[in-house]
Amino acid sequence: MSSSALSVAISIALALCPKSPSAGGATAQAPAADQGTFLTQEEALRLAFPECEIERRRVFLSAGQKARVRDLAGTKHESSLAFPYVAKRDGVLVGTAYFDAHRVRTLRETLMVVVDAEGKICRIEMLAFAEPREYIPRGNWYGQFIGRGLDEDLSLKRKIRGVSGASMTARASVDCARRVLALHQVLAEPAEPTPGNRP
């Protein structure tokens, strides 16, 4: 595969969030030969949120919140920490980005999933992929996620088509999308009362 064809194949930024000054997809940068890295977090955030102010937040999840994320997502969620990157332009929320590193087969990939102000996916970027390149779906496959929220249609058994020869990547990507949307929903819910503050 030529370098230009590979660049197209791994470019999965298929939609910019609302209010972005430009439209269309972005092309992933050439991967580092030893790490399978396409983008840094900073580069991915710049692609998703041009001319925005970005705030990195650190949120501790309670056991109840972790359980709710698992229940909503229908997939495992082990981390007690979340790092949403909240982007605003002129004080108006543009979107929130989450970075999710997970295993595909035996090696890991890292995706950035951007959730818009309505709670829908508006962008996905592949930052790193350590598995062989033939397990990367074509860029237009990720277009199925754009505009989707956390519902039963966000599933390989419903509205998301599978990928011949890359089924484990497809499954990992769907799980990631559902996990991020579930986490975003749980973080927006009222905080659980602490024992000393219960009425």
Describe the structure.
With 199 residues, this protein is α+β, with helices and mostly antiparallel strands. It has one domain (3-18, 25-190). The chain is built from four helices and seven strands, in the order ααββαβββββα. The chain has helices spanning 3-9, 41-48, 63-73, 167-188; strands at 53-56, 59-60, 81-82, 85-89, 92-103, 108-116, 121-129. The chain has a five-stranded antiparallel beta sheet with strand order 1-4-5-6-7, sandwiched between helices. A hairpin with a 2-residue loop joins strand 4 and strand 5 (92-103). Helix 3 (63-73) packs across helix 4. The longest helix has 22 residues, at 167-188. It is globular, with a radius of gyration of 17 Å.
